[in-house]
Specification:
By secondary structure, the protein is mostly helical. The chain has 9 helices and no strands. The longest helix has 20 residues.
Length: 191
């Protein structure tokens, strides 16, 4: 109910004050996008967020807009678009409020994109997605303070498996060696 009234209010404000020169216009679009998303209207929310991103590059809440767009794409399982949006966030907002969360979403989107591609049985596309996931995993494993130790272990194991699936056996052995050395009692060690 509150989201509906907030959405309705934001829509009315947009109708009354549809001057795109208004300093409040991007903020109202942002609020409406938030409300639309909460009421399940993600496509319209994405349109409002894109409008803010394109027309108001100096908007004070641009970081939140970028993250919200990426998060909505993730929630609607638009994996490649989500991965790309989170990559943009982590590239632009290195000290951002959502940096660690964005990295986790980024990697989840990358791996989910690969899993979706595997369902299509197109070997070339699977190979390319696997390569992309390897690069993404290598990137996140290089970052300090982003992942918990348990997450690092899990992703190192996934990286070793992806190397193996790409016939990159020396890299796979190296990754698995690091995994075993750093996690001798890990629950997935013998799987």
């Amino acid at each position: 109910q509150d989201d509906d009234s907030c959405q309705s209010l934001a829509t009315q404000i947009l109708k009354v004050n549809n001057s795109q020169n208004s300093s409040q216009f991007p903020f109202v679009l942002y609020l409406r996008a938030l409300s639309l998303h909460r009421t399940g209207q993600s496509n319209q929310a994405l349109k409002d967020l894109d409008r803010v991103l394109i027309k108001y590059p100096n908007f004070e809440k641009l970081e939140e807009v970028v993250f919200m767009k990426a998060e909505i794409l993730h929630q609607t399982q638009q994996w490649q678009k989500s991965r790309d949006a989170f990559f943009f966030y982590i590239s632009e907002y290195f000290q951002g409020s959502y940096y660690s969360s964005a990295y986790r979403y980024f990697l989840d989107s990358s791996l989910s994109s690969l899993e979706r591609e595997k369902q299509n049985y197109d070997k070339e596309k699977i190979f390319a997605k696997r390569e992309q996931s390897i690069v993404d995993l290598e990137k996140i494993l290089e970052q300090k303070g982003v992942l918990l130790d348990e997450e690092k272990a899990t992703f190192l194991l996934v990286l070793g498996r992806l190397y193996y699936e790409q016939n990159l056996y020396p890299q796979s052995l190296e990754a698995m060696g690091f995994f075993i050395k750093d996690n001798p009692k890990h629950k997935d060690l013998y799987q």
